[in-house]
Amino acid sequence: MTERTARLHRSRWDIFCRVVDNFGDAGFCWRLARQLALEHDQQVRLWIDDPAALAALRPGAAAGASCEGVRIEAWRDDDPRLATVCVDEVADVVVGALACSVPDGYRRAMARRRPVWIDLEYLSAEAWVHTHHGLPSPKPDGLVEHFFFPGFDDATGGLLREADLLARHDAFDADARRAFLASIGAAVRPDARLASLFCYPDAPAVALLDAFAARDEGWRVLVPAGVAPSVAGHPVAVPVPFVPQADFDRLLWSCSLNFVRGEESFVRGLWAQRPMVWQAYRQAEGVHMPKVRAFVERWVEAAEPGPAAAAALARMETAWNADPADVPQALDGLIPALPALRDASARWARANAARPDLAARLAEFVAGKLY
């Protein structure tokens, strides 16, 4: 905790979250709220419109209850608590997470309370983020909204990362891996090479598993419940339960290659120190592809996996996100590059762990506005 964030110990935060991307939005907001409470001693309320999504990720995190220092509130559009809000009920810091709008009644009360107002945006590796991060947006009623962008360098808001994450990763040895796989009922041979699959419904999952099956290294793919139903019963698919956040990290650590999606599992994949392939949220006319290319370019520049491994990763990312017919050939090129990509993934994680994470940067940014 920095000198500035220490001065925030009595600040109240309200974080508003609308669940659009299934579990990703809930997972991101929970991690942020939890870190602010536990690592920065903040008083945090998390307003979420789909408490069930949060409960699946953190059992015990129920609406109307407090969990790990965070007060959880169900958010409904017709909620009378948010229709008419007393000035004293407005927090010191108000966060609209992932471009989420603040409820109208609460917004009107903010004009009289004048809290620090943060528009916490989606993660992107694109260069334009640098020129937008931290910018103020003055409103006609005198309030100022500040844009805060997660990102991959010091010109952005950084990435979420718990203080003990790398230590927990390093303690996850072969015995812990075996025990974890047994605990989730993953029926795999000890010599099996494991991949994990956490993708959107439009991913070419069958083509991917067919490509794994065509190889002779004994690959098996862990598929959480509810993900890629099209691969149910596939010879290399290993069904596992949908696991809470803490166990999802262990699932990633157990594998030699991870397929992740969106933002929450994307960032956890980055910290897992394993090769990964990211599926961006698909947008019309391929609008998502510049985001994919920007990420690959930025990660390759920082991680330095070497030209051959970089080219293999770029091809796999393009195939997975935009060219399903090339998935088998792209995977064939990716597998030999996994050792170089694993080394590069560890280098990237260690280097970036030396930087302040998103929660710390946000707390310091807010401290500069409050005091």
Report on this model:
This protein has 371 residues and is an alpha/beta fold. The protein has 2 domains: 3-158 and 356-370, Rossmann fold (3-Layer(aba) Sandwich); 165-353, Glycogen Phosphorylase B (Rossmann fold, 3-Layer(aba) Sandwich), CATH 3.40.50. The chain has helices spanning 3-6, 23-40, 51-57, 80-83, 104-113, 128-132, 165-170, 174-183, 205-213, 245-253, 264-271, 289-303, 307-322, 327-334, 338-353, 358-370; strands at 12-17, 43-48, 66-67, 70-74, 93-97, 116-120, 136-138, 144-148, 193-197, 219-224, 237-240, 257-261, 276-279. Strand 1, helix 2 and strand 2 form a beta-alpha-beta unit.
Characteristic key phrases:
alpha/beta; 371 residues; disordered N terminus; 16% strand; 16 helices; 2 domains; five-stranded parallel beta sheet; Rossmann fold; globular; single chain; eight-stranded mixed beta sheet
Write the topology of this structure.
Elements: H1 3-6, E1 12-17, H2 23-40, E2 43-48, H3 51-57, E3 66-67, E4 70-74, H4 80-83, E5 93-97, H5 104-113, E6 116-120, H6 128-132, E7 136-138, E8 144-148, H7 165-170, H8 174-183, E9 193-197, H9 205-213, E10 219-224, E11 237-240, H10 245-253, E12 257-261, H11 264-271, E13 276-279, H12 289-303, H13 307-322, H14 327-334, H15 338-353, H16 358-370
Parallel strand pairs: 1-2, 1-5, 2-4, 5-6, 6-8, 9-10, 9-12, 10-11, 12-13
Antiparallel strand pairs: 3-4, 7-8
What would you call the structural class?
Answer: alpha/beta
Largest sheet: 8 strands, mixed
Arrangement of strands in the largest sheet: 3-4-2-1-5-6-8-7
Q: How would you state the average pLDDT, rounded? A: 93
CATH homologous superfamily assignment of the largest domain = Glycogen Phosphorylase B
Oligomer: single chain
